[in-house]
Design goal:
single chain, 194 residues, alpha/beta, Rossmann fold, 55% helix
Length: 194
């Protein structure tokens, strides 16, 4: 049985401490060559070092980490990772929370937490959809506000009538070319329907 350690911080600016995690992993018995260190957000799915760490785990190994949030910020992803490792015969242990998947009680607790997390996610999703549908029904415009204010549109029309280039107009009004061309399509559509 090997002890595999995983340490992660989100920021590389020194505001988060990797050394504490590494020292705790070493104190738990993890050898230097079995400690995987990563600088990436826990919300990201694409974390190459974490994938490498999981790939290195073999049946009978124990994956040790400082806290749950070092593995992932999502409880459903934690439960999925736990299930995947469990199927491969690999246990997980947190150094700061009373959690060790080699213990059946801990496994059952995490699965129950996962059920509640999934329920909460579904409730939030439903609430958000209902709120958006209501706002749409009363005529609230959803999405990002337009980069083109009425004043900018007036300026665009004036500059266009003076033969200014697209580049010049976009730079002057601090808008992107796609924004300009979208407005131009709408402008021509409104002129042809009038």
């Amino acid at each position: 049985m090997a002890l595999i350690g995983y340490a992660r911080v989100s920021k590389s600016d020194g505001s988060q401490d990797l050394e504490t995690q590494i020292q705790k992993l070493k104190a738990a018995g993890v050898d230097n060559q079995h400690i995987y260190i990563e600088q990436a957000s826990g919300a990201k799915d694409d974390r190459p070092v974490f994938k490498e760490c999981l790939k290195a785990c073999r049946e009978g190994d124990l994956l040790i980490f400082y806290r749950f949030d070092r593995i992932t910020r999502s409880l459903s992803k934690l439960v999925m990772t736990m299930d995947d490792l469990s199927k491969r015969g690999i246990a997980m242990k947190s150094l700061t929370e009373p959690f060790d998947t080699s213990d059946p009680t801990s496994r059952a607790m995490v699965q129950m937490i996962g059920i509640f997390a999934e329920l909460e996610k579904n409730i939030i999703s439903r609430r958000t959809k209902d709120s958006l549908a209501y706002k749409k029904s009363i005529g609230v415009k959803l999405g990002r506000p337009s980069a083109l204010t009425p004043d900018k549109i007036e300026q665009l029309e004036f500059m266009m009538s003076r033969g200014k280039s697209v580049k010049e107009m976009c730079e002057k009004l601090s808008i992107s070319k796609p924004t300009y061309y979208k407005w131009l399509r709408e402008y021509h559509a409104s002129k042809s329907s009038a």
